[in-house]
Amino acid sequence: MTSTTSVSYTAPSSSSPKMAPQRRSPAIDNLTISTVTSNSSMEIDLRRVSSMPERGGVETVMSNSDEEDIIRKSQSEGAKPLLKLDQYGFISNMDKDGLVVPTADSQRPTQQGKGASITSVEQRRTTKWKIMLNSWSNIMKRRPKLVLKRLRKGIPHEQRGKVWLTLCHVKERQQQNPGLYEKYANSKESPSKAFQTVQETIEKDIHRTFPRHSLFYDDGNDSEAEMVDSPFGGSLLDAPDRHDDEEREREIVEGQASLKRVLKAYSLHDPDVGYCQGMNFIAGMFLTIVTEEEAFWMLVAIMSDQPCYMRGLFGEGMRETHKVLYVAEQLVHQFLPRLAKHFDKENIHVTMYATQWLLTQYTSSFRFDLVLRVWDCFLQEGWKITYRVMLAILQEFQSQLLQLSFEEILAFMRDLPERIEDGGKIVTASIHIPLRKKHILKLEREWLAKQDQH
Amino acid sequence: MGSRVDEEYDYLFKIVLIGDSGVGKSNLLSRFTRNEFNLESKSTIGVEFATKSIQAEGKTIKAQIWDTAGQERYRAITSAYYRGAVGALLVYDISKHPTFENVERWLKELRDHAEANIVVMLVGNKSDLRHLRAVETDEAMAFSEQHNLAFIETSALDASGVDTAFQRILTEIYRLMSRRNMQAEEAAAGSSLSAGQTISLSDGGKKKKGCCA
C-alpha cells in the first residue's frame, strides 16, 4: 500500500511571547492532514492535536504515519515551495545546494508504508513507557535493568521528550533554580572581552547548525519567517519586540534565536567552558525534541553530571577529548583487530574520522534515526553506547574499508553517514558488542597514567 | 606506505587550511577539490580531508589538504596535523577585521607546531562581499610583505581566485623543493627525490602520509 500524508496548518493570530517555554502546544488550530491512499483522498481534522499532552503534539500524528512524509506549507502558500519534512522535522525536498525543490502532490514520490504491525508495536511501547513514567522513581529503584533494556530498544518518539527530561532531572533543576534561565537568556551583553568573544563564536555557528531542519531553516525572507510555524520544537514566529535588538543583516528564524539563547545561557552558567563548537549540534538536537528552557537544562545535565559528563571534552584545552579518542583508538584495536591493522598500515588514526562522531555524540553528521537512539541510551548509561555505536558502524562497513587506501578511507568516512540505511539497526547491533564499563574505565586509567608520564 | 597508487602523480604535498572560525575554509576546500559551494555548510569539528591533483611546470602535483576547525581551543587537536605539512593557507574573512587581526596568532601557531620552512599564503576570503569589506587589500598586502607571505584574495562563493591560490602555493612549494633538492644534490651528490612521496621542505626527505600525533 502506498500512501502519502500532507499537513497544512496556519499560524495562530497572536504573536508568540518573547520566550516561550510552553510553546510546545503548537498553534495547530487549523491543522489538517490529508492522507492520500491510492487515488482516494481523505482529510483528517487534527484540531484535536492542540488538546494533546504537551509533548505529544504532532509527533503522535506522525507515529501513525511512520514512513510517510509531511508536507508543510505556510499561509502564504503558492509563493514558496512546500517543505516536505521527514518524521524528525528535516526538510527532505532540498537539493544539495540548499534549495527547496517544488514537489507537486502528483509528482511526489510515494513511499512504502510500514504497515499496521509496526504501528501496533509502537503503540505497545508507548503504553509501556506511559506506565513507566507514571511510577518512574519506583521502577528505577526496582527494575533499573528493565528500564535500560527498554531504552536500548528506543523510546517511542512521542514519549522521547518526557523520558529525556526525566532522565536529566530537568523538572527538579528548574524548581531549584526558578527564573535562572530567563535571567541568563535575557542578560544584556557585558563589556567583557571574553564574553564578547564567546558570543561571536556562538553567532558564527547558529546558521551552521541543522540548516536543513525546519526549525532552523532560513528561507532568506524575513516576512515569511513570521508566518511560518513548525511543530518541531515550537514556533518559528518572530517576536516583534526583538526586532530592534538584533543588529543583523536580516532577522534570524526563531529556532536559530532559541539556539543562540540556549548557548549564550550555558556560556554564562559555565564560564569556564563557555562555548565550544560541537555544543551547537547537541543543543540544536535538544531543541527539536524539547522546549528552549528544557534544552538548556538538558545541556547543563549532560555537561556537568554523570553519566555523560561532557564538559571536560569542551573546556579549554579539550583535555578529555584526547582521553575519549585514546579509548576509542584502543577499542578499535581490541574489537576490530583486522580493521585496526589495516588502518595502521594506511596511517589512518581515529582522530581523522571519529572526532566529530564522539565529540558531538553523532549529532553533527548522522541522521536522527541513529542519533536519537544513541541519546536514548547515552542519557542513562553514558559513554558505553557511544563507543559501541562507533564499533558497530566500523563493523558494518569493515569489508569495504579493508579494500580501501588512505585517501579512499577518508573519502568513504566523509560520506559514511549517508551510507547508513537504517540507523536504528546499527544501534541495535551495537548493544551486542561485548564492551563492559570496567573495560572503558581501564583504558581511561591507562590514558591518565600516560598523561602523568609526560 | 601501504597505499595503492590510484592515479599517477609526481609529487604529493600536504597542505593545511587554518584561520578563524567561519572565514570559509571548508568552502575553499570544497570549491577547489569538488567545485562545490555550500551556503549552509556545517561547522567543522576536528579535521576534514580532501585531495586534488594539479599540473605545475610539467609535473603532476597532488595536494593532500587538511581542513581544520577554527575555534581557538581546537588547536589542541588540530595542531597535530601541521606536522609534515609543506604549505599552509592562512585564511581570514575580508568582511570581518578581527579575523585578520588574528592572523599573527595563527602565524605563531605555525611557528610552534609546523615545519620551519612551511610555505604560507595569506588568503582574504569572501571577496564577493564588496559592500561589507572591512580589511583593505593594501593593508593585507603590506602585512604579507612584511611577514614574507604570499597573498591572494578569493571568493569560494563565486570561485574567483580559488584555483589560483592553490595553484600558486603548490607551484611555489614545488620550485622551492626543486631548488633545495638541487642544492642538496650538489652539496652531497647524493640521493635524489623519488616521485610519489610527500615532500618535507626542511629535509627534502620522505614523509609518511597522514601522520599525526
From TrEMBL, chain A:
Residue spans crossing the bilayer: none
Sequence ranges assigned to domain Rab-GAP TBC in this UniProt record: 154-382
Domain of life of the native organism: Eukaryota
SMART domains named among the record's database cross-references: TBC (SM00164)
Biased composition (Low complexity): 1-16
Cited PROSITE patterns: TBC_RABGAP (PS50086)
Gene3D superfamilies per the UniProt record, alphabetical: putative rabgap domain of human tbc1 domain family member 14 like domains (1.10.8.270), Ypt/Rab-GAP domain of gyp1p, domain 1 (1.10.10.750), Ypt/Rab-GAP domain of gyp1p, domain 3 (1.10.472.80)
Disordered as annotated region, ranges: 1-31
Single Gene Ontology MF annotation: small GTPase binding
Pfam families: RabGAP-TBC (PF00566)
Entry protein name: Rab-GAP TBC domain-containing protein
The species this protein was found in: Fistulifera solaris
Automatic annotation (TrEMBL), chain B:
Classification via InterPro entries: P-loop_NTPase, Rab_GTPases_membrane_traffic, Small_GTP-bd, Small_GTPase
A single GO cellular-component term on record: endomembrane system
Pfam families the record matches: Ras
The UniProt record lists the keyword Nucleotide-binding: yes
UniProt-listed CDD domains: Rab11_like
Membrane topology: Lipid-anchor
Record-level Gene Ontology MF annotations: GTP binding; GTPase activity
Localization per record: Endomembrane system
Keyword list, A-Z: GTP-binding, Lipoprotein, Membrane, Nucleotide-binding, Prenylation
The keyword Heme belongs to this UniProt entry's keyword annotation: no
Family assignment from sequence similarity: Belongs to the small GTPase superfamily. Rab family.
Annotated PANTHER family: DRAB11-RELATED
Protein name: Ras-related protein Rab-11A
Biological source species: Fistulifera solaris (Oleaginous diatom)
